[in-house]
């Protein structure tokens, strides 16, 4: 029976990786939640951005983003109003057409009754 290259690689590396994976599992168990893993150098995210900050950015960026959001919301409301107006106009036209259709049917019925 011939063993493929992939199977051979998996077999060899599975044996080699077993001790490493056990070490990683032990490290994961010892870790405390909320800690940042690293080599122990450089500032932590809390030192850079503060404990309550989740997204880095300055006040100008936040204000600009809020301004754009408000502009987009206003534009959306305007488009909704346009759509509502068009739907109302279409409904009114449909009612007119239905009324005209009823009138035509009535006229044709009357005309056919008057024929000899």
UniProtKB/TrEMBL annotation:
<feature type="compositionally biased region" description="Polar residues">
    <location>
        <begin position="44"/>
        <end position="55"/>
    </location>
</feature>
<protein>
    <submittedName>
        <fullName>Uncharacterized protein</fullName>
    </submittedName>
</protein>
<feature type="coiled-coil region">
    <location>
        <begin position="62"/>
        <end position="103"/>
    </location>
</feature>
<feature type="region of interest" description="Disordered">
    <location>
        <begin position="35"/>
        <end position="58"/>
    </location>
</feature>
<keyword id="KW-0175">Coiled coil</keyword>
């Amino acid at each position: 029976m011939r063993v493929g290259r992939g199977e051979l690689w998996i077999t060899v590396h599975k044996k080699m990786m077993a001790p490493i994976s056990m070490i990683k599992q032990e490290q994961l168990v010892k870790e405390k939640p909320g800690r940042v893993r690293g080599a122990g150098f450089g500032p932590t995210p809390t030192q850079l951005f503060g404990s309550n900050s989740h997204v880095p950015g300055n006040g100008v960026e936040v204000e600009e983003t809020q301004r754009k959001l408000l502009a987009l919301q206003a534009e959306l409301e305007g488009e909704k109003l346009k759509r509502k107006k068009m739907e109302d106009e279409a409904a009114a036209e449909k009612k007119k057409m239905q009324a005209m259709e009823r009138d035509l049917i009535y006229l044709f019925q009357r005309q056919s009754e008057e024929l000899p």
